[in-house]
Amino acid sequence: MWRRLGTLVSRPAQNTRLCTSLPKHCSGRPISGGRATIFALSSGQGKCGVAVIRTSGPASGPALLGLTTLRTLPQPRVATLRLLQDPGSSELLDRGLILWFPGPHSFTGEDCAEFHVHGGPAVVSAVLGALGSIPGLRPAEAGEFTKRAFQNGKLSLTEVEGLGDLIHAETEAQRRQALRQLQGELGQLCHGWGDTLTTALAHLEAYIDFSEDDNIEEGVLEWVDRTVQELRGALLAHLQDARRGQRLRSGAHVVIAGPANAGKSSLINLLSRRPVAIVSPEPGTTRDVVESAVDIGGFPALLSDTAGIRDSQDLVEQEGVRRAHDRCGDPAVGPPLLTRARHRHHLQSCCEALGRYEQSKVRDLALAAEELRAARRHLGHLTGQAGADEILEVIFRDFCIGK
Ligand SMILES: Nc1nc2c(ncn2[C@@H]2O[C@H](COP(=O)(O)OP(=O)(O)OP(=O)(O)O)[C@@H](O)[C@H]2O)c(=O)[nH]1
Ligand SMILES: [Mg+2]
Hints:
This protein is an alpha+beta fold. 45% of the residues lie in helices and 15% in strands. The protein has three domains: 37-155, 2-Layer Sandwich (Gyrase A, domain 2); 165-241 and 338-384, tRNA modification GTPase MnmE domain 2 (Four Helix Bundle (Hemerythrin (Met), subunit A), Up-down Bundle), CATH 1.20.120.430; 253-327, Rossmann fold (3-Layer(aba) Sandwich). Helix 12 packs antiparallel against helix 13.
């Protein structure tokens, strides 16, 4: 919502999907039956001091050699200043830093190369064109670098989401929250819960299989019950966070409403630190809803100034008052925020399965064990261990090309 509704604040360039045109000679065929090697401009678009172009895949090494006059690959992870040339025509393209990251010690886990070139559009376009002329290389799709990092086990799904949020973070608090998620805090918590469930399930299955032979320690079932109860309590406590994480990520929408001439526009101007709405001693000044995205102590908020609520004969003002009533609305109504509602959904489903365990254990232990398995599957979906393809597609679609 923050990103979509923040109309009065200039949006950072990283939201823009980069439209890199396909180089003429781009074959995009993977070499030797392997995976295609992808390339893209990974830094922002437009004129700048330095632009970073990177590749990922098996042809990264040949690409690095092709664009430089090197005979052997440079030392891994050490920047080297080289002249860059077109591998076909040998025309000089630029002078820049090159970096070689052999897999698996790279962002994607594959062989990766980076070209730090001068950030002029012609330079970037020439280097991209040269890369596209190398067999096995093709332009990356949006989010493809991150997708490969996930597929190669370099990032969990919640870390991927954290990375996406970090790229889009506009305030300090959003940056901190995203970084925590990127560092894997949520994923680790879920892994811990998953491990607890696995242990409980193993004990329960052992009880089901061996208890009749008296080969099982006493109190196993009680231990499983207690563990499940504690886990359910921990999950419920986590769910009762008043959606703080989601709200921080998307920003709060605050409507400034009240009687005419109360000083609403003066307030939005003060909080925005600029004159977004007209202030005058005349009641009925504001007619249209005026929006301003602000950063209040690191927390994002979208403020809406509205027409003063009063009975008016003026038709234009009547429409303004009607619109003021519409933005106040019912805060409980409206579409849920899909991507991070995902976390809540899986935790909720996990809790429900644990609740059903409680009910079924008195009747049928095998059924109860099945509920523990279902609970564990939901946690797996959250971190991407049990990946649903359509969810992955939604998450990676939010990324820019080159990320
Ligand atoms: N004394 C005083 N005057 C204020 C204060 N805030 C605003 N005003 C004045 O009150 C008048 C109305 O202010 P606005 O900010 O335009 O009020 P509003 O609620 O947006 O008015 P409408 O859009 O007409 O509903 C202006 O002359 C302001 O200078 C305040 O805190 N103290
Ligand atoms: Mg006003």
